[in-house]
Each structure stands twice: as C-alpha cells, then as structure tokens.
Amino acid sequence: MRYIAVNSILQSPSFCGLSLGPRIFFMKKKQIIEQFLSIQGEGRSLGRLAYFIRFAGCNLRCGWCDSLFAVEPSLFQGKADEVRYHEVPPYCDLVVMTGGEPTLFDLKGVRDRLLTPTRIFEVESNATRFPEAIVDDFVWNLSPKLSSSKQKTEIHDRTRLQSLAQWATYAQGRSNVMFKFVMTGPSDFAEILELVKTFRISRDQVYLMAEGQSSSTQKIENVAWIIDLCKKEGFQYSPRLHVILWGDQRGV
Length: 252
Ligand code: SF4
Known about the structure:
Blueprint: H1 6-11, E1 32-39, E2 49-55, H2 73-76, E3 94-98, H3 107-114, E4 120-125, E5 139-142, H4 155-171, E6 177-183, H5 189-198, E7 206-210, H6 220-233, E8 236-237, H7 241-246
Parallel strand pairs: 2-3, 3-4, 4-5, 5-6, 6-7, 7-8
Antiparallel strand pairs: 1-2
Iron/sulfur cluster binds next to loops.
C-alpha cells in the first residue's frame, strides 16, 4: 500500500467540506463501561500501577476489536456508569483513559477532578482525532489501525491519515506521544514502515505489538518475528502483559 503526500491528503477535495467526524458524546454523564485498579499492560508504563477508566463508544469498528463491549451501543446501553472518582487510590499516580475511543469524551473534565501534583494521565486512542486543545495535558498512547484491522466503517479511511499527520507533527521532539502498532502478521510491516517514513515518526516512539486475546499469542515463539523486526529497524517491542496474565478477562 502506498500513501499519497500529506499535503495532498489535507488539500484533497474528498476531505473538504465533509462532516465526516464521529459523533461527540461529551454531554452524557454515564459514559463509563469499566473502571478498575490494575497494572498498565502495554507501552512505556508497562507494569505501573494504574487506575483504568474505559469510555463506552468508538468511531471505528476493527474486525479484531478486543473491547466490543465498549464499542457496540447494543452491548453497553443501559450499563454505563459515571466515573467513580472516590475509588481512585490517592497513591495511584497513573490514570489510563481507554475505550472505545476516549477522545470522543470530556477527558479534561475527568482529569481536572483527579489531578494531583504527581499523577499522570495516559489516553489510549486510535489516533483518528487530534484534540488540539488538550494534547499537552495527557500522555498519548496512539494505536493507528492498519489495513489488516478490517474496518467496518469508512470513517477510518477518510480521516485517519489527516489525523495521523497532525499527531506525527505534534509528536516531534515530545515525550508524551507513542505510536503502538498492533500486528496481525509480517505482512503488516510494509504498511507500518510506510506510515513511519511518510509522517516522519521517530523510531523511538514506535512500539510493535502482537494482536491476540489469548496468552498463547504473546508467547516468544509467536512474537519472535516482531522482536527481530524491532532489532532490524530500530523500533520498540511492547508485550501485552494483561493478555499474558489474564487472557481476555475483563476488569483486571
Ligand atoms: S479503535 Fe479500538 S476500541 Fe475502537 S473498534 Fe478498534 S480496537 Fe475496538
């Protein structure tokens, strides 16, 4: 797959004047489908104690989504809760906002209620939206979806490169952004490499992970090829520790 130049994407008539953006769910109070204390299972904060807040609602539909209960309205309607601020332990210095797609919601409002001098707020996002007003307030664990994610919505193809270009520009020289690519097989690599080159993403900000919801998918015999790619290309590897420990169990 080849990507056209960023400028031509931004200027393309197919992007102009279209209200393609996802619906924003800001105003709902009951928008949380899960909240729990655990350890961060992926990326730079791997192993850190963290309080997870999972928002219900997503603008994408990935074929291998492991959080469908937070994506399909029919699965979360009537079950959503408010943020239980009082349950966040004062000694927990990491809050992870996940989903679904958290940028559809009022992240700043939640952050402001939980802010302490030492607490860090990470957002797990699919990178299809660039919330300019709040980018400096969070650590962004971006997971741009590849062709192999088998999108069931056209929003993905229409907006993702435009948004990814904004994220990549913002990320330059900053330490609060990482790009996590979920790989279903070696054939994903050419697409990742092209995205990294097209958008000039720094290799130390790129993490590769293996797709899969069972612990066997994370075993060394199944991920060695990803680690080999990291060694060859200068990318980082992230295990999915929660999958290794708990498989597809929820709330852990
Ligand atoms: S972006 Fe994430 S939450 Fe949304 S459908 Fe894809 S995998 Fe699921």
